[in-house]
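Listing S7. Sequence submitted for prediction.
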Amino acid sequence: MVIKLENVGIAVRDLDETIAFFTDLGLAVLGRDTVSGEWADTAVGLDGNHAKIAVLQTPDGQGQIELFEYIHPDAIETEPTLPNEIGMHRIAFSVDDIDAALEIAARHGYHPLRGVATYEDVYKLTYLRGPSGILVMFAQALQSA
């Protein structure tokens, strides 16, 4: 059996706001649509499933995220996930300039949870809480001299 990761799906409060954040970071919108119907109900397991969706791709062409904003049923607000909770809770990006990535995030009102850390002179990294409370990790590889 061949298996390939297609994308990671994230439910969001505001699709346009979330797209603006990720496109400012350099992701490109591959497509947008509104989905509903029996096939969507069956695939997702929700009666009356109706959502606006967008698929975004990283500049290297290797990673995709699918964002969806529910029209029906109503989206369910939850507490933001903590880094040590079981389940999916963050999306990680390698960046070549963590300061530039953080400047972009700050323009959208998002800042590191605690600061930028250095891991064994290998990476500078940080977590921030982005649109809809999504935990976003930026990691910049450090060049050895």
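Caption to Listing S7: primary sequence and predicted structure tokens for the chain studied. The longest strand covers residues 28-36. The mean pLDDT is 92.
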